[in-house]
Design a protein that fits this description.
Radius of gyration: 25 Å
Strand content: 35-45%
Distance between the termini: 56 Å
Structural class: mainly beta
Helix content: under 10%
Strand order of the largest sheet: 1-2-3-4-5-6-7-8
Number of strands: 24
């Protein structure tokens, strides 16, 4: 493809020479932008890396906008007039203001980036984890033939196996998931007497399997499109769905046998309490430490020590592959204190017993570790 593209560019340049064309001439005015990648260094980052935009020397661009539900990839052409850079993708236009050769200011609202966010070339991506957490096994898709699924469930093909929704009560069958060695999957969602099939790709990050690139976009019970979903690895025979899809619900248990393991309790179905113990120099009495409580109904309360008194954040939370995302709906008691304007509190899930705070609040700061009680 590179040889063909070079040939096409050479022909285009010859045509421009003989016809006197000046297409995209304005892009050559800023060689510091063409060929560079600019990263969003302002927005809260939940994914492994922030949003980024690459400006091609041929006047094309690729923008990857990271947000809580995944990544939007937008491509098209770019032009610049003085300090205003315009990205055009079909009818969509995205505007940046050039601050200097290393810094751009976004002027358009995106799903994961906001107006006035700074995009800079001076960013070093964090290294990706080199190993999976030891407490949870990596799913082995070459597992020998499992125990036969219940008779009411669809039958998997003999050469592979499936994870069946053991939480589903449907006399006509159970939804099931098949994982393949090439990184693709098939999810058959059974609802009543009907069924839909979703095909796409998956990968594992920490304790979670991530599913995306669907050939069919399902909807949840609210009628909202579902572009990706996650499953928590409970053990090598058990997966827990972490997003509503058609008739399958967040918290549903998928097993090879099609039955819920004896003694199983969904970790998200009980209240958990996580406490950060500050440095002794703060002299914080026992019982007044910052505390995060996650409730089974999907809500949370974070009690923060504001030095002179205690404040609280409350709202709802969701679980991603490696983080707990706490969406703040009430922080009235934090008014006037540091962190009072925070609307999204992110905790990196470090594995098992700890959560690491990714925001500055009041006493609690980025990097502080909350331990499961």
């Amino acid at each position: 493809m590179r040889i063909k593209l070079s040939a096409l560019l050479s022909i285009a340049l010859l045509l421009c020479f003989y016809t006197g064309c000046t297409n995209k001439q304005e892009n050559t005015e800023t060689p510091g932008i063409a060929g560079e990648t600019f990263w969003n260094t302002t927005a809260d980052v939940v994914q492994s890396e922030p949003a980024k935009v690459w400006f091609g020397k041929d006047g094309t661009f690729v923008l990857e906008d990271q947000h809580a539900d995944g990544t939007d990839e937008i491509s098209g052409s770019w032009t610049i007039s003085k300090d205003v850079i315009t990205l055009t993708a079909g009818e969509k236009k995205i505007i940046f203001e050039q601050k200097d050769e290393k810094t751009l200011v976004l002027k358009t609202t995106l799903a994961g980036s906001n107006p006035e966010d700074l995009f800079s070339t001076e960013y070093t991506p964090a290294p990706k984890p080199s190993a999976q957490p030891s407490e949870k096994p990596v799913i082995n898709i070459v597992t020998p033939s499992p125990t036969p699924a219940p008779s009411a469930a669809p039958t998997a093909e003999p050469e592979d196996f499936a994870y069946y929704n053991a939480s589903q009560e449907n006399p006509f069958g159970k939804s099931f998931l098949k994982l393949f060695a090439d990184g693709t999957f098939t999810f058959t969602e059974v609802e009543g007497m009907g069924a839909i099939e979703i095909n796409g790709v998956y990968g594992q990050e920490g304790y979670y399997l991530m599913f995306s690139n669907f050939d069919y976009v399902p909807e949840n019970k609210k009628g909202e499109p579902v572009y990706n979903f996650e499953m928590e690895v409970y053990d090598e025979d058990t997966l827990i769905l972490r997003k509503d899809i058609q008739s399958s619900k967040s918290g549903d248990v998928f097993t090879i046998s099609g039955t819920i393991p004896a003694g199983y309790t969904d970790p998200a179905a009980v209240t958990t309490t996580w406490i950060y113990t500050p440095d002794p120099k703060w002299g914080v009495p026992e019982g007044l430490e910052p505390k995060l409580e996650l409730f089974p109904d999907g809500t949370f309360v974070l009690t923060e020590n504001c030095f002179s008194n205690m404040g609280q954040y409350s709202g709802w939370y969701e679980i991603s592959a490696d983080a707990y995302l706490c969406h703040v709906t009430d922080a009235a008691s934090m008014k006037g204190f540091a962190g009072g304007d925070v609307t999204l509190i992110t905790f990196k899930y470090d594995g098992g017993q700890t959560l690491t705070l990714m925001n500055d609040l009041c006493m609690s700061l980025i990097g502080d570790v909350f331990i499961l009680q």
